[in-house]
Amino acid sequence: MPQRARPTTYVYFFLIFLIAQFGIHATLVTMPYFWDEVGSTVPAAQAMGHPGAFPTPAVSLYLAGVWKLFGASEVSTRCGMLLLSAVAMLGIFLLSIELCGSLQGAPAIMVAALTALSPLYFSQSVLAQTPIPAALCMAYGLWFYLTGRRVVAGLFGLALLWVLFSSLPAIGWGHVIPPRPADFVVMTARRFSSLFLANFHFLGTIGLLMGLRSGRLNRTRWKFAGGVAGVYFLSLCVAAPVLDRDLVPVLPVFYTAAVVGFYSYASKWRMALPVAMLCGFLACLWFAPPFWSDSIENSLAMSDFSDMQRMTAAYLEQNAKGQVVATAWPLSVVLKDPQFGFVEKPVRVMRLPDFSATCLAKVEKDSAGILVRYSRSWDPPRNILPINRATRWFGRRYLGYQLPIEPDEIERKLGLHLAASWQKRGQWVEIYSR
């Protein structure tokens, strides 16, 4: 496609990406609100309906506009974000064409496929959170700059800063700088691992090294794109908490660099390694890592989590009338507020920081009639984190791992027994009552 293609060409490709995005996310369009959505963006968008209220996160402003046109619901939220992700995909496609230059074999198509099926981009495409708008601004900003339209590129750069910084008050400014040097080192290591190793990204790193060796990544356009992506990545290393989704804006540059490396060598490697990456991405969407915990929002596990939260809320609404339910966020929030669509009437809730033994030990025996605990990460059957004291400490401090408390200990300390439970593909919910 030429640098200045006809407008209809852009429309055709946008429609292709739009159909593709809705096609691969068809089963997620009705997914209930998930995790951080109920903590920041959705409440901020809901606040638009109250006089004098104005949402801080930029994505909430967009979401409020979608609701104004189509009504506030999970479906309109998912469809609105998929529309935004398709617009971002067009920008990523155009950027990859510019970066790949004269490289033969339609590498931009492969970059688009890798991006769309990447576990991080795939999951964020339906969530009302910052990464997709940020990726959109990053992709178009770089593309307009590389094609000589610097003023428009600057506007997208300002939009990127607005998208990112407008979300900080919702997160909390105290999370921006790691409190200790040791935390900074570990968080930086996690960022590097997430970008260059995890989710089969080690194959992309091989492609990146191949591209550097071939000399194709030493050109001016790559120095600029890589520099912008590098500055963004390094800025994440001083930000806490460490969320894999924050890497979404730099993934297109990383995948394009990998594809350039793959396509720079013999034809037998040209398709083998990127196809292996695609297969790895699909595996990561469906299966948990074999030996360690993973974030629920990085895969299709997020759908299971939301479904189980809704199932739990329905059970409690029928069986916990008048009783205080002790549980942790985000279930504690959706039980109290019917606007999220999990309950019709508010449920009395005692919010717990987490489900650790230390936290439950502080709960008074008669303060709650029901305790609900549930999996907050995607744990494999052979998780290595509980092996010994050192791995438990490291997992608890840096990976969010919590040592499970036994049911008999809950009964002994709180006088509650297991009343109901269910599991779904490695995730679980347990409800204890008197």
TrEMBL record:
The transmembrane residues are: 12-34, 54-70, 82-106, 126-146, 153-172, 192-212, 224-243, 249-266, 273-292
- Membrane among keywords: yes
Instruction: Provide the species name.
Output: Paludibaculum fermentans
This chain belongs to which protein, by name?
Glycosyltransferase RgtA/B/C/D-like domain-containing protein
Keyword annotations from UniProtKB, A to Z: Membrane, Transmembrane, Transmembrane helix
Q: Does the keyword Transmembrane apply?
A: yes
